[in-house]
């Protein structure tokens, strides 16, 4: 698909959108040289109707928001077989990093040159679609903590969040989980389980994204279970999460498959689904949806 006029739908309540402001974002789009058919900043309650309208348009669609916004939009657009590209306006922007777009300007300039359509894998947990990952234990609790203590000073939040997570690892290190992968049962004591749609890449540098996937069409789920037992091992693992090489930690287990079931000792579990926290009944049923999501990816320069 050569460069053409895009419809652009942006979640008007995304944190980065509120921080930058509509005028600044509009100016950045114009400066990128991107051809635009329609630009819409929508309230969350308006997103579904806007998606229905844009899905019927012949113009390619870009969706702006965090990973949670992209997840909910993908759920709708996949059922309508409407491909979409992404503009990162979230906290983690995991899918944007997977596509090699680390900033909004990078994404705008990349899509301005054109896009091609592909289909990527997704996961599903108890009927909830996820594009990146679903997790139980520390990740949803950390998300709740971050929202309760949200501050504009990122440098202050990082140490607060780090020590919250370290303390959670110690308090919940004996949490029992059972993970069925195919026909085999695995038993762990773990404060953190993450299941991603395709494996995370190995990282060794602090300037790399520590949660980037090299292959979005690998056709597998990957479960990561942390089983650190001491405060020293908690800190070692968490430091590796920050600076890289976390997949080499001796207290981390990686399992791959296409369908998994997760049991805990609770009837309901707090689950982070692409960064959005929800309560789901156990057992948690997770399955791969191979090449389910139609996605626009920027054309690569020859």
Automatic annotation (TrEMBL):
InterPro entries (UniProt xref): ATP-NAD_kinase_N, Diacylglycerol_kinase_cat_dom, NAD/diacylglycerol_kinase_sf
Superkingdom, natural source: Bacteria
UniProt domain DAGKc: residue ranges: 43-129
GO molecular function, one term: kinase activity
Name of the protein in question: Transcription regulator
């Amino acid at each position: 698909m050569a460069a053409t006029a895009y419809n652009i739908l942006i979640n008007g309540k995304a944190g980065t959108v509120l921080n930058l402001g509509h005028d600044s974002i509009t100016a950045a789009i114009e400066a990128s040289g991107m051809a635009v058919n329609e630009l819409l900043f929508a309230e969350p309650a308006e997103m579904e109707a806007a998606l229905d309208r844009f899905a019927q348009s012949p113009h390619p669609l870009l969706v702006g928001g965090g990973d949670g916004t992209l997840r909910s939009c993908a759920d709708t657009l996949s059922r309508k077989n409407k491909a979409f590209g992404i503009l990162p306006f979230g906290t983690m922007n995991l899918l944007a990093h997977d596509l090699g777009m680390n900033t909004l300007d990078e994404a705008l300039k990349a899509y301005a040159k054109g896009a091609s359509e592909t289909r990527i894998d997704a996961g599903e947990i108890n009927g909830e679609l996820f594009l990146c990952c679903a997790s139980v234990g520390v990740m949803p609790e950390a998300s709740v903590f971050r929202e309760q203590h949200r501050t504009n000073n990122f440098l202050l939040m990082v140490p607060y969040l780090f020590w919250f997570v370290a303390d959670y690892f110690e308090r919940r290190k004996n949490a029992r989980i059972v993970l069925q992968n195919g026909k085999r049962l695995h038993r762990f004591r773990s404060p953190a389980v993450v299941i991603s749609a395709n494996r995370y890449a190995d990282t060794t540098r602090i300037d790399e994204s520590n949660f980037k996937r090299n292959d979005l069409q690998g056709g597998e789920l990957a479960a990561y279970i942390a089983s650190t037992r001491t405060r020293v091992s908690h800190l070692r693992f968490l430091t590796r999460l920050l600076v890289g090489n976390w997949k080499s930690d001796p207290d981390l287990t990686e399992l791959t498959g296409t369908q998994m079931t997760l049991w805990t000792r609770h009837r309901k579990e707090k689950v982070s689904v692409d960064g959005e926290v929800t309560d789901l009944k156990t057992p948690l049923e997770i399955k791969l949806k191979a090449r389910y999501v139609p996605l626009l990816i920027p054309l690569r320069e020859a």
